[in-house]
């Protein structure tokens, strides 16, 4: 076996990052998706655009701005320092913040689609059956959006596992802290250790493929991208 | 009383409706598609937030914008049956039924779980998922679900419109049972004359977002100045009572204030109320009584009003048959040849009497 302890550390770090990010993303994306699918506010367009930006921006651009913002003189950096958290850049927590932003559109979009697909009627029915709005949300809207939630979670997880550009800009390459799988693959290639790069890259490929196949088998009609 | 008034403006449509109806029995809100019937119902449920006006249900005020009162939908004790059954697809029939039931304080519940399940015959469906039910079964569950939410007012938005004729026939008796056995006032939106004639006691006529007329259904159906008289299915509704049964000819006699009719129907307990409908197109006029005709039901009548019909060849005739109004649709040519005008004494021959059962 050519996989080194460093490689395993990168795998563990990547899984930890993807898990934390997915949980956070669900907590953040559900209210945003709900708001986007129901609001008539003029802010809907601009907010959608901001959330979708990571889809079209080069990761290095996003990473660059985040690096500046999270640095000791940036607005986020000042805030985290004032809160006694120190500077987030080049730390696991920095990666979490960056990944949440970077993977946001992949989670928000399917959930938003699911909310929109079920429409207002189930909520109206729930209201006519004496359910308060919060009750109706948890007992009707959320269960009906379950396929969207599942797909959003899977896409968020998979996308976070595979990110490179943002990590490179904001996390660097610190073993056990910010050296995730994609970074480790890059290191192997730089060092011409193609065998090890193959193991890791192939593993990621297989996992991503299996994940996507399972989504399409779960719901072949749903088109995501 | 249920007193309601709502103003609402969409692009290209204005609702300005006011109505006072009795808080008992079925009141049909009747009008052509797009006249604002469903919107009015949604306003009453509090689902149209930009509507302004008021809604008083007996002693309770659900909405009165002049006084800044707006009860959100979930706090209005109403039941709403939508055109599509709108069952929650992620839970089984039992949990659909329980949805409103458990959210109603026990002290407010008026009709028991068992009685409702029996009335709509949904017992055998309790463990099924909505996706596996037929359209008629779904609508029965939806009606039971609405009743279990202890409504003081039941709003039904064309509950039969999405069903085919067969399913409609299957559901109508259940609606009649709900109407007869439960003392919940029902507002029933429909554009279907037959359905309305069968179910409703009161009628509110809506046109272009305004209430054109309202009152007891039998009176409204007997008027020539309302749009219903122009409907293909125009005709009067008579509330009669079962009388003697002619065993030899297998005919049942029904009595009403202005006379009696015979129908080919098995005997009923004397005095049992029977609603029947005589369509204008099934009534012909003659100047003398035709003893040589096979038509069974003939009434001496006076012509009280004439009106045009959608088809220029036809005329609508309003008749007074001993205090009971009948409508007839005959050709203009016949009127001319028989020289029938207002005040003419005629014999109305009724070809078909439809029992509303």
What does this 3D model show about the protein?
The complex is a heterodimer of chains A (225) and B (357). With 225 residues, chain A is mostly helical. Chain A has one domain: Orthogonal Bundle (MetI-like fold). Chain A is 76% helix and 0% strand. In chain A, α2 (44-56) packs across α5 and α10 (181-190) packs antiparallel against α11 (194-218). The radius of gyration of chain A is 20 Å and the shape is globular. Chain B has two domains: 2-221, P-loop containing nucleotide triphosphate hydrolases (Rossmann fold), CATH 3.40.50.300; 235-355, RNA polymerase II/Efflux pump adaptor protein, barrel-sandwich hybrid domain (OB fold (Dihydrolipoamide Acetyltransferase, E2P), Beta Barrel), CATH 2.40.50.100. Helix content of chain B is 21%, strand content 37%. Chain B has helices at residues 37-45, 93-101, 113-119, 135-148, 165-181, 193-199, 217-221, 332-338; strands spanning 2-10, 13-21, 26-30, 52-57, 60-64, 69-70, 78-81, 153-157, 186-190, 202-207, 210-216, 235-246, 251-256, 259-263, 273-279, 283-286, 297-308, 314-321, 324-331, 345-350, 354-355. In chain B, strands 7-8-9-3-10-11 form a six-stranded mixed sheet, sandwiched between helices. Chains A and B meet through α6 and α7 of A and β7 of B.
């Amino acid at each position: 076996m050519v996989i080194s302890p460093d490689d395993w550390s990168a795998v563990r770090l990547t899984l930890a990052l993807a898990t934390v990010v997915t949980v956070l993303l669900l907590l953040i994306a559900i209210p945003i998706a709900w708001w986007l699918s129901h609001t008539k506010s003029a802010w809907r367009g601009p907010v959608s655009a901001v959330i979708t930006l990571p889809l079209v921006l080069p990761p290095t651009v996003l990473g660059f701005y985040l690096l500046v913002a999270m640095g000791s003189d940036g607005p986020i950096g000042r805030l985290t320092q004032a809160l006694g958290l120190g500077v987030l850049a080049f730390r696991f927590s920095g990666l979490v913040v960056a990944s949440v932003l970077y993977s946001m559109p992949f989670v928000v979009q399917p959930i938003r689609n699911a909310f929109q697909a079920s429409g207002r009627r189930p909520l109206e029915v729930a209201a006519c059956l004496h359910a308060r709005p919060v009750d109706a949300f948890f007992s009707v809207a959320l269960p009906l959006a379950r396929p969207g939630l599942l797909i959003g979670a899977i896409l968020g997880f998979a996308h976070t596992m595979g990110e490179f550009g943002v990590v490179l800009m904001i996390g660097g390459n610190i073993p056990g802290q910010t050296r995730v799988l994609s970074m480790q693959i890059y290191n192997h290639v730089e060092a011409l250790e193609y065998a090890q790069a193959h193991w890791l890259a192939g593993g990621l490929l297989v996992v991503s493929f299996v994940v996507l196949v399972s989504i399409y088998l779960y719901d072949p009609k749903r088109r995501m991208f | 009383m249920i007193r309601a008034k709502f103003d609402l403006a969409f692009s290209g449509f204005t609702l300005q409706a006011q109505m006072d109806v009795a808080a008992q029995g079925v009141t049909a809100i009747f009008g052509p598609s797009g006249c604002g019937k469903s919107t009015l119902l949604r306003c009453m449920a509090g689902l149209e937030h930009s509507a302004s006006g008021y809604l008083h249900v007996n002693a309770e005020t659900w909405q009165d914008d002049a006084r800044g009162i707006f009860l959100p939908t979930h706090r209005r004790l109403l039941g709403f049956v939508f055109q599509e059954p709108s069952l929650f697809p992620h839970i089984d029939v039992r949990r659909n039924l329980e949805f409103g039931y458990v959210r109603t304080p026990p002290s407010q519940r008026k009709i028991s779980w068992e009685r409702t399940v029996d009335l709509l015959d949904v017992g055998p469906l309790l463990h099924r998922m909505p996706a596996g039910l037929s359209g008629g079964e779904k609508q029965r569950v939806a009606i039971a679900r609405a009743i279990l939410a202890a409504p003081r007012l039941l709003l039904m938005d064309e509950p039969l419109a999405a069903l085919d004729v067969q399913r409609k026939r299957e559901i109508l008796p259940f609606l009649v049972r709900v109407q007869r056995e439960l003392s919940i006032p029902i507002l029933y939106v429909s554009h279907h004359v037959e359905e309305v004639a069968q179910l409703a006691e009161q009628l509110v006529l809506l046109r272009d977002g305004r209430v054109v007329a309202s009152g007891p259904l039998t009176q409204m159906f007997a008027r020539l100045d309302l749009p219903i008289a122009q409907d293909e299915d125009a005709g009067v509704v008579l509330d009669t009572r079962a009388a003697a049964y002619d065993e030899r000819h297998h005919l049942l006699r029904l009595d009403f204030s202005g006379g009696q009719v015979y129908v080919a129907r098995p005997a009923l307990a004397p005095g049992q109320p029977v609603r029947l409908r005589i369509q204008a197109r099934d009534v012909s006029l003659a100047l003398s009584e035709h003893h040589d005709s096979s038509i069974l039901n003939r009434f001496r009548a006076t012509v009280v009003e004439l009106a045009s019909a959608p088809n220029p060849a036809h005329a609508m005739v309003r008749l007074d048959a001993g205090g009971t109004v009948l409508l007839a649709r005959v050709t203009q040519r016949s009127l001319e040849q028989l020289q029938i005008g207002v005040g003419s004494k005629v014999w109305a021959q009724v070809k078909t009497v439809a029992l509303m059962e």
